[in-house]
Amino acid sequence: MPQVVDLTKALIAAESVTPARGAVFDVLAQTLSVIGFEIDRFVVGEEPDGPVENMIALRRGTGPHLAFAGHLDVVPPGDGWSSGAFAPEVRGDLLHGRGAVDMKGAIAAFAAAAARVEGPTLSLLITGDEEGPATYGTRAIIDRMTERGLKPDFCLVGEPTSDQRLGDTIKIGRRGSVNIWIDVPGKQGHVAYPHLADNPIPKLVAALAAIDAIALDQGNGWFQPSNIEVTDVTVGNPATNVIPAKASARLSIRFNDEQRGEDLVALIERTVALHAPEATVIARISGEAFLTEPGPLSDLVSDAIDAVTGVAAAFSTTGGTSDARFLSQLCPTVEFGLVNATMHKTDEAVALADLETLTDIYAEIIARVS
Length: 370
Fold this sequence. Notes:
alpha+beta; 4-stranded antiparallel β-sheet
């Protein structure tokens, strides 16, 4: 039976800055094979967003099919670590290392839980590209499952959802995300002869002012209001006496389930066209908003948390996007995992006790599914 702390250490030690391939998948695959999982590893995609390694681990049982989803890739460690980011170290009651919380610890906990409990069909859907573009990650796993005729009844994503203590928060939805790039062309010229030039900056400023005035919605019972944020404005003009030839901006929109990505892109296109008809607008929709209404799955997870810890979990849709936005298209999906206080930070760390307790909770969830 895999020990959760040892497996977490082994996963951390396998350096896996996004996109992850190779050794870190070897560690997990070897562990899961020992406890009866069939392993399907595959690499897809080309540069610049690929290639990416993914894995579907399946152990057939009786009753419903519970999928656990997660990612082995991590963000770059950055500087200032007290010890090596990929040299796992226990200091006091904490295990330090990049990925300890987000989310190698949860993957290790589910593997350890699966070793304890048999019954339902279990799968682990593990990608090496969640922290990056996610072009060839979980979406490729979904395509692969469809080809194989695999469809889970429930999906649990092991993102670090807990806030103040383990078990206090379950994510039942996430806002959608779209990034938009606006380029307004002009005509370069001398500032003393503006009639011979065409300044793109006033057009861009007018368009951004109109966009900033848009109120998309007021939010609803589960989601905060959608928001549009200007994240970059660029002209790149080093001269004080030259009207530039181009002005650019970038937007980021986080939206709730009252909006759709394509509709928001069309809204921005129309708004920009009113002020800068010759502008180009390029958009990338990272994912749509989703909501798994409170019901059997969220109740099952919250009841398991309560049974193990006595904590009454709150349902939430806050935070950034996750791969649950894709998996929710397959089946009811919720997210639950470790305390998120140190994710993506220097000296990322997980409490040893939390790893053990999360294993107990995941084992309780598996048992209740069966």
